[in-house]
Amino acid sequence: MKLFLGVDGGQSGTTTIIGDETGRILGTGEAGPCNHAAAGEGRAKLERAIAGSVAAACAQAGLDASAVRFEAACFGMSGGPDDKREILAATLRVERLVVTDDAVIALAGATRTGRGIVTIAGTGSIAFGRNPADRTARAGGWGHIFGDEGGGFDIVRQAARAALRLEEGWGKPTVLREMLLAATGAENANQMLHEFYTDEWPRSRVATLAPVVDAAAVETDAVALAIMRGAAQQLAMLAGAVRAELWSPGSALEIVYIGGVFQSRILLENFRTLVELQEGVRCRPPRRGPAEGALREAYRSVGLEQSDDADA
Question: pLDDT confidence of 45, banded at 50, 70, 90?
Answer without folding.
Answer: confident
